[in-house]
User: Which sequence fits this backbone?
């Protein structure tokens, strides 16, 4: 299914991805970001966007310190990831953030 | 502007540096196989600034233009900036496994931002305005600056003006209407020929008789009259050999050089201190504290070395032995203790009158004192775990030879599922960091860079709050201060 093919009529949420600086990451943050982008394509509830404004921003942090700056994203909801998760787990958490089912 | 790694390399090609190595003048510095790995390491500071997964610590917003700049040309505006500087050091140390050379210029710029401001406040001079204009130029062009503090110093028991040869400390030899002429040298200059600019500072506190030595300025690295003589590093000529295995670190390295100033003209607008001898110590102390914080880079190199030691243990089949596990724990304990020190001096920094944030000098000195010790212990443990082969391995050519290759692969096989080449590569990396080219950065630079151990002990004795400690002791044991 195409990501914009929303059978419920609501437009998909625009999701951005940002990172901490990665001084001592405990997993491959870039790989996780790639997995999330791949998993988002083909969904109707979320669409990946590299530019704001965003409805949600996934902040991929390399450790529990999660020092990434999350200001500057306006009213976007923030989902902070601190350890390696599957893309599905991340998207499910994102769904919870919006109180909706997976697409 | 944020230069890319490619643009950085191109910019170096335009410099007309006067460089000597092995008794020869170099026509092409950038492609020289001994120097190129060090250029690669500096280039990493440009590359990572463009990567979204690192830009949060690699870039900052300029306080003078509001533009996004590389953190290496930023003046710290907050505690967060200081903490990010520490994190950046660890990141790049881990990414390169060596000295990436660019911190010394960052520390010089930050120290000068405070000292020029304070000199102006005391003397009504215009150094801070000049400095800001210079800083804007450096930020706009995303330049790499060599921070040149250490003079050759001759007889260490004599003050600069008492040396038999007056050039053993860099000094002003002529004052002209448009600028000054300087002569002397700076020793051990990290990344000198990978730099666009060289920022000169005095190396010790000074008194009135040394006023001609109390001088600070910046010059383009290819200014007329500057000569670079590249220092040797242990195992350096392995970079001239075929193959990459014996280099240990196939991509990155560092370099240092003696930089000679032979009657070099410095225009007034690039002079940041001229004769204000009472501020020489002020600048040295500020630069040194920042630079001591910068040794967070060794934590990143330590990450690489600990990783290599763990791999060596696994390849040898000893990783489950309790003493090996304990040694790895100890290496991590030491490495993370170092990280704590650099973070602590950043987190307890403060704002100076110029607006620049300055690290906690006591903690920066305590941290650097530990840096003069812990990497040596981490290296000792890595060598223990690696086994003697890290120092007795035959060459890559012998492994490739049809005559000896088979024998070496047979007798240097360890765990069955690990290719011999992997074992050899990881042992060569441990050799590189603890005995080879990278040991210059990981060990000797840890010892002497940013000041030898005694320099930190002097600062610790000055900065430790002894009166308060005595007062507390008296209070608790019942001594009346007035008795
Ligand atoms: C790899 C490396 C990179 C470096 N990079 C840079 C750089 O980029 N820029 C820069 O400016 N500098 C750089 N340095 C220089 C560094 O700051 C000096 O090595 C350090 O300050 C020590 O000076 P020195 O090497 O002349 O040793 P010395 O001053 O000769 O010290 C040797 C010993 O003598 C003692 N000593 C020295 N003088 C006295 C005295 N008057 N009284 C009592 N004891 C004394 C010292 O405490 C030490 O134990 C680098 C050094 C290294 C090793």
Assistant:
């Amino acid at each position: 299914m195409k990501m914009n093919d929303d059978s419920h009529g609501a437009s998909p949420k625009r999701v951005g991805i940002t990172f901490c600086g990665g001084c001592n990451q405990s997993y491959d943050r870039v790989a996780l970001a790639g997995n999330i982008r791949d998993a988002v394509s083909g969904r109707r509830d979320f669409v990946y966007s590299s530019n704001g404004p965003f409805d949600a921003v996934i902040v991929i942090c390399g450790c529990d310190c999660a020092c990434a700056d999350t200001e500057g994203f306006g009213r976007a909801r923030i989902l902070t990831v601190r350890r390696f998760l599957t893309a599905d787990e991340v998207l499910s958490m994102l769904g919870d953030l919006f109180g909706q089912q997976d697409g | 502007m944020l230069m890319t790694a490619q643009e950085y390399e191109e910019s170096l090609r335009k410099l007309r540096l006067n460089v000597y190595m092995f008794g020869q003048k170099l026509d092409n510095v950038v492609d020289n196989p001994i120097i190129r790995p060090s250029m690669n390491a500096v280039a990493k500071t440009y590359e990572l600034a463009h990567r979204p997964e690192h830009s949060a610590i690699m870039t900052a917003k300029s306080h003078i233009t509001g533009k996004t700049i590389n953190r290496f040309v930023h003046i710290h505006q907050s505690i967060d900036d200081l903490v990010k500087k520490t994190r950046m050091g660890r990141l790049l140390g881990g990414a390169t496994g060596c000295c990436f050379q660019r911190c010394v210029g960052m520390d010089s710029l930050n120290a000068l931002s405070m000292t020029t401001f304070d000199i102006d406040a005391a003397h009504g001079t215009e150094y801070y305005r000049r400095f800001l204009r210079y800083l804007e130029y450096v930020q706009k062009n995303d330049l790499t600056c060599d921070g040149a503090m250490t003079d050759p110093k001759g007889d260490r028991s004599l003050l600069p003006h008492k040396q038999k040869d007056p050039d053993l400390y860099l000094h002003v030899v002529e004052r002209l209407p448009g600028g000054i002429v300087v002569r002397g040298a700076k020793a051990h200059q990290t990344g000198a020929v990978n730099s666009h600019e060289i920022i000169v500072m005095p190396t010790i506190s000074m008194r009135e008789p040394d006023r001609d030595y109390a001088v600070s300025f910046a010059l383009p690295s290819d200014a007329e009259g500057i000569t670079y003589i590249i220092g040797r590093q242990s195992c350096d000529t392995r970079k001239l050999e075929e193959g990459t295995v014996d280099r240990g670190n196939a991509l990155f390295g560092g370099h240092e050089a003696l930089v000679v100033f032979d009657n070099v003209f410095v225009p007034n607008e690039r002079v940041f201190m001229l004769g204000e001898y009472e501020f020489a110590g002020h600048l040295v102390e500020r630069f040194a504290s920042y630079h001591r914080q910068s040794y967070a880079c060794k934590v990143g190199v330590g990450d690489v070395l600990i990783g290599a030691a763990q791999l060596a243990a696994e390849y040898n089949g000893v990783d489950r032995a309790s003493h090996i596990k304990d040694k790895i724990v100890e290496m991590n304990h030491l490495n993370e203790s170092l990280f704590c020190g650099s973070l602590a001096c950043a987190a307890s920094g403060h704002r100076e009158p110029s607006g620049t944030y300055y690290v906690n000098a006591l903690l920066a000195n305590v941290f650097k004192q530990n840096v003069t010790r812990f990497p040596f212990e981490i290296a000792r443990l890595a060598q223990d775990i690696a086994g003697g082969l890290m120092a007795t391995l035959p060459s890559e050519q012998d492994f490739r030879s049809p005559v000896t290759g088979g024998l070496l692969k047979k007798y240097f096989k360890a765990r069955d599922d690990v290719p011999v080449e992997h074992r050899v590569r990881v042992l060569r990396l441990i050799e590189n960091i603890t005995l080879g080219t990278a040991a210059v950065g990981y060990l000797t630079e840890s010892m002497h860079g940013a000041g030898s151990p005694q320099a930190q002990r002097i600062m610790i004795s000055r900065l430790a709050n002894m009166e308060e400690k005595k007062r507390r002791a008296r209070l608790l044991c019942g001594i009346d201060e007035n008795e």
Remarks:
- Chain A has two helices and four strands.
- The two ends of chain A are 10 Å apart (CA to CA).
- The pocket of flavin-adenine dinucleotide is lined by residues B 104, 147-150, 153, 156-157, 186, 188-190, 256, 440, 444-445, 448-452, 454 (CB under 6 Å).
